[in-house]
Design goal:
- The structure is a homotetramer of 349-residue chains.
- With 349 residues, the first copy, chain A, is α/β, with parallel strands linked by helices.
- Chain A folds into two domains: 125 residues, NAD(P)-binding Rossmann-like Domain (Rossmann fold); 163 residues, Dihydrodipicolinate Reductase, domain 2.
- Chain A is 32% helix and 19% strand.
- In chain A, the strands form two sheets. Chain A has a seven-stranded mixed β-sheet.
- In chain A, helix 1 crosses helix 12, helix 7 runs parallel beside helix 12 and helix 8 runs parallel beside helix 10.
- Chain A is globular and about 60 Å long.
């Protein structure tokens, strides 16, 4: 067997970090050399995430990127906005690869980043180099990258659902409205009243209306597809379930576009993709059918009365929306088959 | 004390029927004289809905509208489409009032009804007479009615959220997209695999895309507001919770319409309404804050980048979306204060 | 109409405090004169509990028992252990009545209190005077009380399920094991990781095994019934639901005790009680049938093979287990019918 | 690579059957040659369990054990009681191995089986040959078996939690009370009102009190440990979650038994076991930490006041409680490492 890939995780005790650890611990070809955590420093990882009890004896350390750059072949940063950007440097990138699960390097226009995230970007010089880590769009660039900006959960599901139709000119991007629904793990593991069981259970709400930070990220990628700036409406909703994102997108069809045209484009883009499943006609994506896996299920329905297309995508926000996609990117960085360690069949029920 | 109102319920063992019984049993001025149920005939009502154990000794009977017309001052039909229409007659309506919770008399154009519901209407002559039982729009007509078509759950929430802005010309109705989310009680109490706990829990899906039967009902009422035919996109979603509907509606603003304009219209329409609460700026409606009550909470946000308004409404689908509204209509029919028996404060958590 | 009862709530923004406000706001004969809250001082109550939006304009105040004693006819303390005990005094009790929802005055033996709660009791002199506010056991004493110790949630459900059989000598109290299951609202509204949606949902656990503080409270009351000290096993479990407690109790039958004997005793104790329902033979209590109401449903099954009785009780922890019972006690203190403001039929589904 | 194991599944569209398919489809060394289903015959398997869409093109067939015996190296029967017993024969067993997930061959005393299951056993001759498939107890016999009786979900969790202490004489088996809590998938995928989302959600109940069919199965295995007949109290409860069983067992300690004694026995029995994790002192098992895996987490607490031990076990009912254990048994039958295809780390959240 080859040498194992040495992986470090900064922010290993959030939900995305925990999912990363779970995925990597199941692999024979990867060794986790660092479980970083500010909140749980010096505690045993297996006592925090007891699902991994007996699978690791590791104790959480703090966030020393310098030390980590020497120890690890790849560092995952599953941390709040701004942290990865404050740790990256030429010296670090010359020694290790970084897959950043935060938003720090996702948006090419630093002004846009700063306007939506309300923070000063401490290392804007590296934005240009960073590759947006959506393999279905940027596979070849990812393979060459030192710094991968792992996409947000809503953007991953939204872009994979909508991009092919924008790119191929089947829908009018100016009419695009994305109504997204997410499970609660997307809100993170911080102790907030709003995320208590009794506050979320038996309820449904929109949040971040007309102001959610994933909006410009979606718009940027769709703009590349459209070949011109695209502005969308994006509304996320909180749903009482642990995992899962469902995207329902609405857009006016371009003249004469038919059901068959859309189906053909979806298949052209995704039949070769391991992790995107185009569902049969009439079958709506449901988050239960992708839970615990790296799949995105997509489908659509044309409303002939309004000449709009309703595009739908379902995904596990912690897998393809965070840790699964990060592992997919790691596989690309290290020349491995893209689905290594990602063959989990969705868990149902 | 005056004579009690004698009420009969046909379809008393579905969720809407059960909610009706719960509401009426708490009143001193109403007596339930008939608990109709095809599925549970001859069984004690309090053994089926054990929440009402010891509150009634009644045994379920079947659906004899003729007999009921003599016994009851008002008959609620909480039954599948087509049943009420098959039971109504001049003779029945001359003896009792009917509040129909099915769709049979909601849509004025019988062709539209038959096209969407795929059934022949057996008593189309009464459609004209029937009053659409949304008190906030039709209060005065309801008071005079013999036959009230109690609105559907999605239409109630959608219309109350959207109608004022359509009527006052603040939004372009041709751009209207309604993305709705519903708890599972809306799917009824029939024993279907799709509604089993494990099939619904931890999942989210769209259904009836571009084909849901509540679409023409919403369109008809909005058309009255617009003064011309309105065609909308409507997509319902199933959410893992018992009760609650959340409507998120999107529409392009008419020229120069401001935040203040919309707020003013909402307040003009609803400040005098008992059951519609316009929330303070920046507060999104959540289904948890209306559960178990007859309230609809509405609010909105303008997206200045797209010049669209995002309109939101939250409601309990079994209360204002079904039984609560039916009781509100009954109150109007009998000249009672509209909120009689409907003063429940939402239950939280 | 008579003068309204003026009620103050200290700790009005916890779940029990919110439930109290909800119950009292629905009454014509009570006025809430004080919404105390340390965490939300100076915020509008209706912005914290938005279910009560537009029903009160009150702003939360802090915990000034002295001032409150002059303003209020009754003060509810829905606060952490130790607080009420630190505020009570002869001067206060000479001016107002106190219904304490904490454990401070539930246990007569101050040593036991201090051992289980690990705090020094600051006003042990008042323990003797306090009346344990379980109306089904202590109705007459409650009517005369100045200080009512409102029972804990687990104790209420456990005692009402088990007490009659202990008192009548049908079961051997030394064999008594109580396995209880509670919804998450029992854990309070504090922002703790353990109570986050994703930590509780899709899981089940025991906690406080052989050490839960409600144990001595249950034991004390059962000891009165047995006429000698009773020691029990008590294990609470956390269940992914908002409300509800289910108690499953096991005890060996005394010689020759039959099914009919137990049924007879239950009916003798509870047929005259408004809030305890003895279910028909073979029907197990379920929390869904009592949610949102002040009812406790009880039943039992004898296992002839082991000669043990399995006793079961179901209750809403925020109603009969906290706020509902507090209101029941208030009704007794003020000479009102015991079910005033407590006639809610359980909400289902 | 060696020849693949050819596996047939009768009853592949129930939840246990679906989990079996999911586990086996992820393996390179197994081929599923038959997806049996009475309810969904002739439908594509991937259209029923859409989590497996695109992973198999198989169409469901019916239950032809004769044909299957020729095609398959091993047949799993995940079917209602009585079916496997009606299909087994010497001819079949001479050609294939059977792992029966029903109760038909779990209980050695056919009278007991018939009394609890209320059906005549059609092939009692094979009961003696059948091996009770709990590898932690019967590993060596399983390896040699033709017919494996895969244990029930409650028995698996109960026995693994309790057996070592019974066998080593640390607890008095006559005092044993098992209070179990299960997720809803244990109730199967049949379309019953009782298992609808709205009936189960936000509720908790005991069922099958003093009469659940898993009782004699648990008793039989514990009797082997005790060396004499053991009679227990067993009460299952339904919990609103998809997966998971939690067992809380109570028993009086034998004289002088200490905490250390119990811990030592647990470790002696389970330290060498792959799938049983003895948790650290003070840590209670929770179903969330085993979901989606084949692990059983066990621990205990001694109550010094009552001299009872509280024993706790948590498990995924579809994995170690059904399909996972069946695969573990298959591995033993075919001489494979016991954890082949069962290395999934529990999914959280």
């Amino acid at each position: 067997m080859n040498k194992k890939i040495k992986a470090g995780i900064i922010g290993s005790t959030g939900y995305a970090g925990g999912e990363l650890a779970r995925l990597l611990l199941q692999r024979d070809d990867v060794e986790i050399v660092w479980y970083g955590s500010k909140s749980y420093a010096d505690q045993k990882y297996g006592s925090i995430y007891q699902n991994m009890y007996q699978m690791t004896d590791a104790v959480c350390g703090n966030e020393d990127m310098e030390a980590l750059a020497d120890m690890a072949d790849v560092v995952f940063t599953a941390t709040p906005q701004g942290l990865c950007a404050s740790l990256v440097s030429e010296s670090v990138l010359s020694r290790t690869k970084i897959i950043d699960l935060s938003a720090d390097f996702r948006i090419k226009d630093v002004e846009v980043y700063q306007a939506w995230y309300k923070i000063q970007h401490p290392s804007a010089d590296f934005i240009k180099e960073a590759v947006y880590g959506l393999p279905e769009l940027n596979r070849e660039s990812i393979k060459q990258a030192r710094l991968v900006a792992n996409p947000g959960c809503y953007p991953t599901c939204s872009i994979l659902t909508v991009y092919p139709l924008v790119k191929e000119g089947l829908i009018d991007p100016d009419t695009l409205i994305i109504d997204a629904k997410s499970g609660v793990s997307g809100a993170g593991r911080g102790a907030k009243v709003d995320n208590l069981y009794c506050e979320v259970n038996e309820s449904c709400k929109a949040y971040g209306v007309a102001s959610h930070r994933h909006t410009p990220e979606i718009e940027e990628q769709l703009s590349y597809g459209a070949g011109r700036p695209v502005t969308i409406s994006f509304t996320p909703h909180l749903i009482p379930m642990n995992r899962g994102i469902l995207v329902t997108a609405y857009a006016s069809l371009k003249k004469d576009v038919s059901d068959a045209d859309i189906r053909e484009v979806y298949h052209a883009y995704y039949d070769k993709e391991t992790f995107v499943r185009v569902l049969p006609e009439g079958v709506c994506p449901q988050t239960r059918w992708v839970e615990g896996s790296n799949y995105v299920d997509v489908n659509f329905k044309i409303d002939p009365r309004t000449r709009r297309a309703v595009l739908m995508g379902a995904m596990d926000n912690l897998m393809k929306g965070a840790a699964g996609q990060a592992v997919q990117n790691m596989n690309l960085l290290f020349g491995l088959p893209e689905n290594t360690g990602l063959k989990q069949i969705p868990l149902f029920p």
